[in-house]
Design a protein that fits this description.
Low-confidence stretches: none
Order of helices and strands: EEEHEHEHEHEHEHEHHEHH
CATH superfamily: NADP-dependent oxidoreductase domain
Helix content: 25-40%
Distance between the termini: 32 Å
Shape: globular
Strand order of the largest sheet: 3-4-5-6-7-8-9-10
CATH class: Alpha Beta
Strand content: 15-25%
Number of strands: 10
Mean pLDDT: 97
CATH architecture: Alpha-Beta Barrel
Oligomer: single chain
Length: 272
């Protein structure tokens, strides 16, 4: 397993995203992923599956200290007292004394960022989480957050896949020592029929999804593909036995544009 190091954190380069997984399916997939060798699980308050993620972690039999667990605070809990309380509620649901990483799930312009980051830093100092970070932050917000936060931020979790050009955000993350964690790394399955990725994959005896994940990992991004199918778990994990050439990397970069975003909401910031 490869790791990405960022401001004191050591994040496994591939994790399991759990958005839209629920109930027994969620617990079963988390358990299976850990048994297959995954050591990074990503959840969030908004996913309403923290309890099931915790069940899957315990059922796996893998030592807690060997697993990197991330959760995210939803935007209506960004007021300082509310943030701390909501993180404690997440820990109760997960049945854990602490997580490895707590993120602000989306920017919230209605609460001063300095107050929210102060509370996030306080949650870390209380021992509720080992590390803190942000998600869906733009370049301008990364600049603000790293300047305002009383504790080091370790990552920005953003949508990133071959169809979405994230060069500006990636450069800002690198400048501030943040890991870039890519959600929807296989573009919600759209890459499965992509001929460019399929052609590159044939040369390596890999699927388009594996080529896509490898492209991201070779940029030192962390990837958290979501799947509810156990056979896909193995496929997504099996990306460390080949490497893409510089030409292949460049060919995939050419597929990206600023318009390739798949996750966008009315409350989203003005994207770079």
């Amino acid at each position: 397993m490869l790791f990405v190091e960022a401001n004191g954190a050591r994040i496994p380069a591939i994790g399991l995203g759990t958005w839209e997984l629920s109930g027994r399916t969620c617990a079963r997939v988390v358990e299976q992923a850990l048994r297959l060798g995954y050591r990074h699980i990503d959840t969030a308050q908004a996913y309403e599956n923290e309890r099931e993620v915790g069940d899957g972690v315990r059922a796996s039999g893998v030592r807690r200290d060997d697993i990197f667990i991330t959760t995210k605070v939803w935007t209506n809990h960004f007021a300082p007292n509310d943030l701390e309380r909501s993180v404690k509620e997440s820990l109760v649901k997960l049945r854990l004394p602490a997580v490895d990483l707590v993120l602000l799930h989306w920017p919230n312009p209605h609460v001063p960022l300095a107050e929210t980051l102060g509370a996030l830093g306080h949650a870390k100092r209380l021992g509720l989480t080992r590390h803190i970070g942000v998600s869906n932050f733009t370049v301008a917000l990364i600049e603000q957050a790293t300047a305002l936060c009383p504790e080091p931020l370790v990552c920005n979790q953003v949508e990133y896949h071959p169809y979405l050009d994230q060069a500006k955000v990636k450069a800002a993350c690198e400048q501030h020592g943040l890991a870039l964690v890519a959600y929807s790394p296989i573009a919600k399955g759209r890459i499965k029929t992509d001929e460019t990725l399929a052609q590159i994959g044939r040369a390596h005896r890999k699927t388009p999804a594996q080529v896509c994940l490898r492209w991201l990992v070779q940029q030192d991004a962390v990837v958290i593909p979501r799947t509810s199918r156990v056979e896909r778990l193995s496929e997504n994990m099996n990306i460390f036995d080949f490497a893409l050439s510089d030409d292949e990397m460049a060919e995939i970069f050419q597929m990206g544009s600023p318009d390739g975003r798949l996750t966008n909401f009315a409350f989203a910031p003005k994207w770079d």
